[in-house]
Amino acid sequence: MTSQLQETLADLERRVADRTRGLELAAKVAQEIATVRNLDTLLAQSAELIHTVFGLYHTQIYLADSTGRTLTLQAATGSIGEQLLRRGHRLAIKTGSINGTAAAEKRSVVVADTTQSATFLPNPLLPDTRSEVAVPLMVGDRVVGVLDLQHDFVDALSEENLPAFEALAGQLAIAIENARLFVETEQARTEVELYTRHLTGAGWSEFLDGVNRSERIGFNYEAGTVNPLAEALPETHNDHTLAAPIAVNGVTVGQLQLEDENNQSWTSAEIELAKAVAEQVGQQLENLRLLAQAEQYQAEAEAAVRQTTRQGWADYVNNLTPLNSGYGYNQHQVIPLLELNETDTTLTKPLTIRGEMIGELLVEADPDLADDAVELLTAVAEQLSARWKMPA
């Protein structure tokens, strides 16, 4: 009895040690692949590292396509792996194969003895496979691929060492997702930069249109005096001339050109200073351009609004029946202006909507009307304008 207990205890200790060792190896592999950002490199390195660390017969990694219907082999070890990759080896995500079942059912599939398994499909290129484990690569509830491990010994891959491989598969899935997101982010950033450069170039072409302003603008500083340039300076290439491009969002919009009056070469510090100044000039020029064009667009929008308002009121007035040009108050009642006797108007305040005058407030008053009364009439005109709605 004592010997049996000792054997059982020893077996438990061995199994715990094996599982601990497996988890340690899985953690080591996960740490190695965590910083790889290129997806192809990540998959190739992961397959080789797992293959070497765990002493496997064959290791391969499949990725699921966007439809979730097909697994495509993306990394495999050895010369056999190279052959399978060249063939573009694929599997359907459905039951019928170990890897297809793992992806379809989102669970690990363990074949401890391939000779006793009905689900194992032998591969003529891998005749020595005796045990196999397929672990789905999961991100949340989504299958991104399958990690397939094969050994040439029966029971070398079993339920006992499955926790280590599942932990490793979890880390690998996260690394794959991070690599994909990194690629997508880089692509999006590149597209934004290209589009920004396009908009910047188009903006400067529109700004320097030769109509509102010259296509070339430049200034020359010499002997304490700043003068506009009639034409662009010729490009000079010598040790005494320093040229720093003025760029905005990667688009060169100008140039800062310096000439040493003593014909001396420029130091590295002076070159860096010129580049820094050119960069600051570029940023400020872009700010000024955007401000100028914003003011131009605002003026154009305001002009369009005024035109729309003017036309709208013209159409409204023309459709009035009967047509009254206005109303007046004769100290007794409000009546149409046509019925009022002509009087001398001493005070006129415009009625405006969106900057367009649509009428007037006319008052017959003492020429020496007090300032506060004038302010009151101005306020009345403003309130009347504000409450007057544009006709539908």
Put the structure in a nutshell.
This protein is 46% helix and 22% strand. The protein contains seven helices and 14 strands.
Structure report:
The protein has 392 residues and is α+β, with helices and mostly antiparallel strands. The chain folds into three domains: 16-184, Beta-Lactamase (2-Layer Sandwich); 233-304, no CATH class; 324-387, no CATH class. The chain is 46% helix and 22% strand. It has helices spanning 2-33, 39-53, 78-87, 98-105, 162-207, 268-318, 371-387; strands at 58-64, 70-76, 90-92, 109-111, 131-139, 142-151, 219-222, 225-228, 241-248, 251-259, 327-329, 334-336, 347-353, 356-363. The strands form five sheets. A six-stranded antiparallel sheet has the order 3-2-1-6-5-4, with helices on both faces. Strands 7-8 form a two-stranded antiparallel sheet. Strands 9-10 form a two-stranded antiparallel sheet. The protein is elongated.
> Order of strands side by side in the largest beta sheet?
3-2-1-6-5-4
Name of the level-1 CATH class of the largest domain: Alpha Beta
Number of domains: 3
CATH architecture of the largest domain: 2-Layer Sandwich
Task: Identify low-pLDDT runs.
Answer: 10-18
Distance between the termini: 102 Å
**Which H/E pattern describes the elements?**
HHEEHEHEEEHEEEEHEEEEH
Q: Remind me, CATH topology of the largest domain?
A: Beta-Lactamase
Discrete helix count: 7
Estimate what percentage of residues fall within beta strands. Answer: 15-25%
- Structural class, judged by helices and strands? alpha+beta
**Overall radius of gyration:** 41 Å
- Helical content, roughly? 40-55%
* Fourth CATH level, the homologous superfamily of the largest domain: GAF domain
Total number of beta strands: 14
The shape is elongated
